[in-house]
Write a structure and sequence with these properties.
Length: 393
């Protein structure tokens, strides 16, 4: 029997984790940076990263047993490399993982990393379908692919849907970081380490992990300042090294300014500064990072540190230098800001972890390591004596 469909407008009250919803010719495009921030930087890497909906999900109540979502994804392929897998859509029912789907097709951007060029090939919308859901009233979440720009066109169900008001007892955790926080090589959108930590801690995630773009940009600080949150964390360091963006002299004041801006909107919110996880190629060797294409035809891309360790003495940034400076800055600020905290990233992934879970490309964690980091963050940050501990009313 053909379902009798209900089509529901895709509006902001159905979406979590997006900070802006751009109207397009076909539907809506979720953004993780507001339009004003996007207008201040035309960097293609940033614009790609913020339009990939890491942590963004549709949330609604329904008795529907079948859900269809029409989308127009933008995928990326790389010259000389095997095709990348299609982005994953995770469906949860009442908070429990229930189904998973992909959306083959859509636009394709082919990137030639050696030449520094990209070619756009237009494609057609596709339909993601979830069937045989429980025939009862339930809360449904559809987590969008963390690594594909995803234009939303239509939501169809075989029963009406209603928005889910935010629960007053569920805290909102706002996090900013690099591609590792964005999701890098996680298996699915609920498998990124921030999503895993949020699920374990029972908090609502707003993920501002921006691949290649955690660069202490003032517009990102203002976005954090202006976004409602009960808990905030900022993971700082690796992108500053692998872009070779600044020297130690600029780094300290830039961190102070970033934190000052956040505090303008969140003067007493618990704020956790997280230093980089272990990355052996950049512990004592400055950037920039460069791709190593030696084994790209077999699907293996690695990264190399292109700096000279001797340059660290002149102020070029390494992860060791960044960790020391972040620890110093937080310690300096804490007497006037008792709700500021510091976490050494090596507590999330350190030398012992690297022996068991090495970084496949020498820079990004794989799916198992994302799960490990998420569990470790939940254990440390949300512990009874941790910076994000629940406070008694």
């Amino acid at each position: 029997m053909t379902p009798r469909w209900t089509t529901t407008p895709l509006t902001a009250d159905l979406l979590r984790g997006a900070l802006d919803l751009e109207r397009t010719e076909l539907g809506v495009l979720p953004h993780r940076l507001p339009a004003r921030a996007r207008a201040q930087c035309a960097d293609p890497q940033l614009l790609m990263a913020e339009s990939q909906p890491s942590g963004v999900r549709l949330v609604f109540r329904t008795t529907a047993t079948t859900v269809e979502l029409d989308t127009l994804p933008t995928k990326r392929s790389y010259v000389g490399a095997p095709p990348r897998p299609d982005g994953v859509y995770d469906l949860l029912v009442d908070g429990r993982p229930t189904a998973r789907a992909v959306a083959p097709g859509g636009h394709v951007v082919t990137v030639d990393m050696a030449a520094g060029t990209a070619e756009h090939r237009p494609g057609a919308p596709v339909t993601v379908r979830f069937g045989e859901l429980p025939a009862r009233d339930k809360e449904v979440e559809i987590w969008l692919p963390h690594n594909e720009t995803t234009e939303l066109i239509a939501l169809r169900t075989d029963a009406p849907v209603a928005p889910v008001p935010r629960r007053g007892d569920r805290r909102v955790w706002l996090h900013h970081g690099s591609s590792i926080s964005h999701g890098s090589d996680a298996a699915s959108p609920t498998g990124t380490w921030p999503a895993r930590a949020a699920a374990l801690a029972a908090v609502d995630l707003v993920n501002l992990g921006l691949a290649g773009s955690a660069l202490l940009d003032p517009f990102t600080a203002r976005t954090l300042r202006d976004t409602p949150a009960d808990l905030i964390s900022v993971k700082i360091g690796i992108n500053l090294v692998n872009t070779d963006l600044m020297r130690l002299r600029a780094f300290g004041p830039a961190v102070h300014g970033f934190l000052d801006t956040i505090r303008e909107g969140h003067p007493t919110t618990p704020l956790l500064v997280v230093s980089p996880i272990l990355c052996p190629i950049h512990e004592d060797t400055p950037g920039p990072s460069a791709p190593d294409f030696t084994d790209i035809a077999e699907g293996q891309l690695r990264f190399r540190a292109m700096g000279d360790p001797a340059e660290a003495a002149a102020g070029k940034l390494t992860l060791t230098a960044i960790r020391a400076e972040l620890s110093r800055i937080v310690a300096q600020r804490i007497p006037d800001d008792p709700n500021l905290h510091h976490l050494d990233g090596r507590a999330l992934y350190g030398e012992r972890d690297a022996d068991a879970l090495p970084l496949p490309d020498d820079l990004h964690p794989d799916a198992a390591t994302h799960r490990h980091i998420g569990a470790r963050f939940a254990e440390l940050a949300f512990a009874a004596d941790g910076p994000f501990a629940e406070k008694a009313p």
